[in-house]
Amino acid sequence: MAEKKKVEQITSMDVDFAQWYTDVVRKAELTDYTSVKGCMVIKPYGYAIWELIQRQLDDRFKEAGVENVYLPMFIPESLLQKEKDHVEGFAPEVAWVTKGGLSELPEKICVRPTSETLFCDFYSKEVESYRDLPKVYNQWCSVVRWEKETRPFLRSREFLWQEGHTVHATAEDAEARTVQMLNIYADFCEEVLAMPVIKGRKTEKEKFAGAEATYTIEALMHDGKGLQSGTSHNFGDGFAKAFGIQYQDKDNKLQYVHQTSWGVSTRLIGGIIMVHGDDNGLVLPPKVAPVQVMLVPIQQAKEGVLDKTNELLAELKKDFRVKADTTDKSPGYKFAEQEMRGIPLRVEIGPRDIAAGQAVICRRDNGEKETVAFTELSKRIAELLDDIQKSLYEKAKAHRDANTRVAKNWDEFTDIINNKQGFIKAMWCGDQDCEIDIKEETGATTRCMPFEQENLGDVCVHCGKPAKKMVYFGRAY
Amino acid sequence: MAEKKKVEQITSMDVDFAQWYTDVVRKAELTDYTSVKGCMVIKPYGYAIWELIQRQLDDRFKEAGVENVYLPMFIPESLLQKEKDHVEGFAPEVAWVTKGGLSELPEKICVRPTSETLFCDFYSKEVESYRDLPKVYNQWCSVVRWEKETRPFLRSREFLWQEGHTVHATAEDAEARTVQMLNIYADFCEEVLAMPVIKGRKTEKEKFAGAEATYTIEALMHDGKGLQSGTSHNFGDGFAKAFGIQYQDKDNKLQYVHQTSWGVSTRLIGGIIMVHGDDNGLVLPPKVAPVQVMLVPIQQAKEGVLDKTNELLAELKKDFRVKADTTDKSPGYKFAEQEMRGIPLRVEIGPRDIAAGQAVICRRDNGEKETVAFTELSKRIAELLDDIQKSLYEKAKAHRDANTRVAKNWDEFTDIINNKQGFIKAMWCGDQDCEIDIKEETGATTRCMPFEQENLGDVCVHCGKPAKKMVYFGRAY
Fold first, then answer.
1. Does residue A78 form part of some domain?
2. Is residue B376 part of a domain?
């Protein structure tokens, strides 16, 4: 019974992308629903992907001088309210604790939707002198935002993330750290998740509540929608003034610190699914694949087949994340399952091949098969994993480039957004009302003002006023 | 200014152990207070210890077939109430969320104090057949218990931990897993934290709310109080019946699963502090020391001293967690700081020693110094770290053994508990009223009924009725 469910056909992505996504998440056993509305279970296979993301990103953080800490999950109402823009942005979507044990709390506290206010409170006591700066702290934790519509990984009431919070002596240092962390995110997405991203700045309308500037990395999903995949904020000294975070400089003068924060979340897993997946299920980049190689014995009842499988398993384990499927399911079922779970390589080990001293390797990304001598297996697997990692990136980049179009005027813009989707590059006047009009008329939002600006014309694609910035537009998750 | 604070004298542990503990936690920069009552900040140095605990314990879990998952932090009231004993145990100390965003919730939800109910709800949908069993899942997360009195690491309203939850086909499998995880905890405490523990079973009074049996590891702190350091629970099929977790066995009959759960928390850091610390501050076992070796240049303004320090740093980094203190603080200050933070080894590098091709190594645990040639440094550091790890365990074990006493009668019992503290081994009738009387009269609780039973006599140390079990008693955190 349990067998049948897994290999059921999933919805084709071209028929119904949203349903395809839901099917993949469920059938690859990444998450499950719970009795807690809007919250998901992350199952072992999904969590193993998150652990690989965490480990590799955390290594990059540590190289960049980041130190991990842990702050409380609760924020007293009075603390949340200290910075005006911030509380306006978050108060409508927080969960409030009003009762502790058997008694009403004197002040209600919310479950953190993000921890700027807690870090500010902490830094206001922690920082005294220029010698204490910078502080570059990060925490891995879960946060809560009381969303109405939820989807696994993309939007849920509770999600896992990391949030970095830093304080610096000067505006220049804060700006440098904001950009440094954005670059770490971008490199990580491209090198580890094989997901190309556009780096740029958010408009005033789209920036984080309380930030002076928000930088973002934006990726394009298979269905032509954008995914904001990570953000890095420069707060200037706004929070510092609201929370009184001051330090004594070298001349014994009191100065306000300059702050940043930056985060990525389990949303990245949603990105991996929607960038690389296909109609057979998940396709995982080898660097975040919990299982990189699945060994599948063929005619495993025959003498020597299981022995050889186990021998290869022991050998390959030294270099790869590898498993052998020695259950009594049929090879066809095992293949379908390995494909559904996006395992990059399958190695088929049958009696005839064993006699010939070889096995068949099959790639998940393009289905190509090749026969490899046992003596060459480990070397060839390493090469193939490397190649898959690169190919997935190239394929995703080609898809994004093919689906990034220039709109010189409003007719072109509406034609693209209604008939083709994808990213639209266009000139914009910089006026927020115009930005709102574009969104209301088309559903497309400003994804970012890319660091790499191009001059596509002199006037705004929508209102015709003088253009200030080249912007990426798109519908987004 | 910041300099002075750190080297201030801390309270002597013999004068006021509780104050000594608070001083060490603060001055070694492990935690700090927050504006959130009863919750702590875990600062970088404290969190780095937790990361080392996590990483090494998680490796042992994975070897034992444990898979990590993540379940929601919220439990609807109706779910918490499904198992009668469990809700009675936890309802009085949970935090209740009653409002999400701007509206009242239709049903209040609590922040998880522990996740048995969530895992049961999950398993009731997940498990169908004997083929699905066992499931051996764990999560690393934070939990909330609305405590009145709090102390860093030992008792706080929110704390970090791991909680494993498993389901099995048979009672035997569940019992075996319960004991297996207790053994993993015990080995981890002894081999990694250098903290000897007594393994045993909790009495009915002290067992976990809803469990059939609770096993525990109990450690003795420097002040003679016990610390429950980890627990492993066998639930039998009680929760399974309350939540309807059934599977179809090989004969197609519906059977209830048998369950376990087990956890350790940041409390272990409190244990490390109170087992190994001394009047100069923290003493860390090398395996959980974020910095194992601190290089301290002497007369660092002299030519070649900083160069040599940096050269050694680069070399030693390959094998150890090592840092160099090249700030402009005095060597004496640097020594005191390294000692306060419990860094196992200090290497002093001065001009005269450099000329002689050698450095001075000083051990944190016993203050012994030795001169070592640069060419032998790495080898000697490895030996010394190994020796410190073993010595700390031996010292802690000698302390525990010296402070574990047999009480044959009630006079001996009260004499020990009032004048000597430590663990008391005594015979007990098994009657809960007698156990309550002992606690009320002396403040001592049953720590556990050790697996290694001894026959110390035929009658209960308190009431004189026939004895059933040898028990460890003690006052405890």
1. yes
2. yes
Q: Do A122 and B40 touch (CB under 8 A)?
A: no
- Tens of pLDDT along chain A (477 residues)? 344 444 567 999 999 999 999 999 999 999 999 988 899 999 999 999 999 999 999 999 999 999 999 999 999 999 999 988 888 888 889 999 999 988 999 999 999 999 999 999 999 999 999 999 999 999 999 999 999 899 999 999 999 999 999 999 999 999 999 999 999 999 999 999 999 999 999 999 999 989 999 999 999 999 999 999 999 999 999 999 999 999 999 999 999 999 999 999 999 999 999 999 999 999 999 999 999 999 999 999 999 999 999 999 999 999 999 999 999 999 999 999 999 999 999 999 999 999 999 999 999 999 999 999 999 999 999 999 999 999 999 999 999 999 999 999 999 999 999 999 999 999 999 999 999 999 999 999 999 999 999 999 999 999 999 999 999 999 999
Is B75 inside a domain boundary?
A: no
Cβ neighbours of B70 in A, within 8 Å: 41-42, 47, 50, 142, 160
Which domain, by its residues, includes A340? 291-386
Query: What is the model's pTM?
Result: 0.96
B132/chain A closest Cα distance in angstroms: 9
The SS3 of residue B328 is coil
The reply to whether residue B72 touches residue A39, judged by beta carbons under 8 angstroms, is yes
Chain B residues inside the 8 Å CB shell of A160: 70
Residues 224-243 of A with CB under 8 A from B: none
Angle at B169 between CA B452 and CA B135, to 5 degrees: 90
d(CA B215, CA B231): 6
CATH number of the domain bearing residue B303: 3.40.50.800
Q: Which amino acid is at B149?
A: E
Q: Are residues B222 and B169 in the same domain?
A: yes
Q: What CATH number is associated with residue A441?
A: 3.30.110.30
Clarify whether residues A28 and A159 are in a common domain: yes
CB A248 within 8 A of CB A230: no
Choose among A74, A78, A143: nearest CA to B36: A74
**Which helix (H) or strand (E) is B424 found in, with range?**
strand B423-428
* Angle at alpha carbon of residue B78, lines to B76 and B82, rounded to 5°: 120
Tell me the per-residue pLDDT of A175-220, one tens digit each, with 9 for 90 and over.
999 999 999 999 999 999 999 999 999 999 999 989 999 999 999 9
Alpha helices in A277-350 (DSSP H): 305-316, 331-340
- In this structure, the answer to whether residues A270 and A309 fall within a common structural domain is no
Any A CB within 8 A of B75 CB: yes
Do both B32 and B170 map to the same domain? Answer: yes
Q: What is the three-class DSSP state of A45?
A: helix
d(CA A449, CA A476): 15
pLDDT at residue number A350:
97
* C-alpha dihedral sign at B370, B371, B372, B377: positive
- Domain C-terminal end among B339, B360, B387: B387
Same structural domain, A99 and A139: yes
Asked if B455 reaches chain A (Cβ–Cβ under 8 Å), the answer is no
Domain end point (choices A276, A310, A344): A276
Neighbours of B8 (CB within 10 A): 10
- Are A353 and A373 a contacting pair, CB within 8 Å? no
Within a domain: B360: yes
Q: Which of B282, B283, B287, B288 is nearest to B266 (CA)?
A: B288
Structural domain count, chain B: 3
Q: How far apart are the first and last CA of chain B?
A: 35
Q: Both A467 and A380 in a single domain?
A: no
